[in-house]
Write a structure and sequence with these properties.
With 141 residues, the chain is of the alpha+beta class. It is built from four helices and five strands, in the order E-H-E-E-H-E-E-H-H. Bound molecules: flavin mononucleotide (FMN).
Length: 141
């Protein structure tokens, strides 16, 4: 049985390129063998990650992520059972929220900035879909 999970968190001490690289390396090493796919969105302040896969592997990964010292204030924004993956193409893709243009952000928020802790899960997923449509997301299968 498949689930989709979306959470947001605040980067502890920023999210410099080497930390993002470290996280992506862990994701690419771990996710394929556990059937996990998804997208990691990041800015220098926040993370927002959507994970899809079997309920057991997703819950187990989320439990590890919750205790990861590289971020704080981890908030679950959305969790649902699904019949079909939306992000099946990526073991873990990434999107730099600092590079998204203001008009895209303004479609989903009062100000042209991403504040996932003040956003509904529905709007956050809509933003991620928009990032997919505008090819802001980069990744490898
Ligand atoms: C924002 C964020 C996203 C992460 N995403 C993943 C992921 O998709 N897959 C993964 O295996 N680890 C991910 N991690 C790392 C895990 O928290 C954990 O460090 C890693 O799975 C290794 O755990 P272990 O040494 O207990 O096996 C992420 C960490 C952070 C801070």
């Amino acid at each position: 049985m498949l689930v989709r999970l979306l959470y947001a968190s605040r980067a502890a001490g920023g999210a410099p390129a080497d930390v993002i690289h470290q996280i992506m390396t862990q994701a690419h090493a771990h996710n394929p063998q556990h059937g996990i796919t998804g997208i990691l969105c990041h800015s220098d302040k926040v993370y927002m990650q959507v994970l899809e896969g079997g309920r057991g592997p997703i819950n187990a990964l989320y439990a590890k992520i919750l205790h990861d010292p590289r971020h704080t204030d981890v908030v679950l924004l959305h969790y649902e059972e699904i019949t079909e993956r939306r992000y099946a193409c990526w073991t873990m893709a990434q999107a730099n929220l600092s590079k998204v243009n203001a008009s895209t952000l303004l479609r989903f928020a009062e100000l042209p900035e991403v504040d996932p802790h003040a956003t509904s899960g529905k709007h956050a997923l809509a933003l991620i879909d928009e990032l997919m449509a505008t090819a802001t997301i980069v990744g490898r299968p």
